[in-house]
Design a protein that fits this description.
single chain; alpha/beta; Rossmann fold; Arc Repressor Mutant, subunit A; 2 domains; 6-stranded parallel beta sheet; about 50% helix; globular
Length: about 220
């Protein structure tokens, strides 16, 4: 039996996945979490084999949660399930330790295949994501301005463009506000911008965030 922990801040998404997987043999939903922080606390209690993890959530988000869970529980497989199929998300979460990446538009058969694949110790990428990553290595036409950012800079960017204040980011990442501001200014310098507003516009332009993401 594959034990699954669902991590998504949208109740309807979790409900939908539960209904999809409810009658699938050898798969059991052992817990649900609406944030990365909640997932980290639940893991020792429910002991999942595979975590279905969203990327954009309130608080630390899926990227940081993936990094922390994999570090503390390397045997647990994390399969990212998100609306974001574009770079730099796939590369970043795989670098953070995720075993797979797929978009929320997949069907039941593909989701089951992905779960079984990562559970067996192999990696899984949905076809469109795999194609994008392959093309990225063949051409430089789709290079993102975010490619030069460090893992921590990327995490700060995601949280700031999600509307979190410096003190909130500092609290979630266990950093001082001064350190978070240092990352912000480093972001501005690397990206050639001067404000959080410009940072958000740049993120929208490169599909790092969706202006209608709160509807998904």
């Amino acid at each position: 039996m594959i034990k699954i922990l669902l991590v998504d801040d949208h109740d309807l998404v979790r409900l939908g996945i539960k209904k999809l997987l409810g009658d699938v043999g050898n798969i059991n939903i052992v817990g649900e979490a609406s944030s990365g922080e909640e997932a980290i606390k639940l893991v020792p209690q429910v002991k999942p084999d595979v975590i279905l993890m969203d990327v954009k959530m309130p608080g630390m988000g899926g990227l940081e949660a993936t990094k922390r869970i994999v570090k503390a529980h390397p045997h647990i497989k994390i399969l990212v399930v998100t609306v974001y199929g574009d770079e730099p998300y796939p590369t970043r979460v795989l670098q953070a330790g995720a075993s797979g990446y797929m978009t929320k538009g997949v069907g039941l058969d593909e989701m089951i295949q992905a779960i079984k694949t990562v559970y067996s110790g192999r990696r899984y990428l949905s076809p469109e994501v795999a194609q994008q990553l392959a093309l990225k290595h063949l051409t430089h036409d789709d290079e993102s301005p975010f490619d030069s950012l460090s893992e921590r800079e990327m995490q700060v960017l995601i949280m700031i463009t999600s509307g979190q204040k410096v003190n909130e980011v500092a609290d979630q990442l266990c950093l001082s506000p001064k350190t978070v501001n240092s990352y912000r200014y480093r972001l501005f310098d690397k990206l050639g911008i001067d404000s959080d507003v410009e940072l958000t516009h740049l993120a929208i332009r490169h599909k790092l965030i969706d202006v209608e993401e709160d509807k998904v």
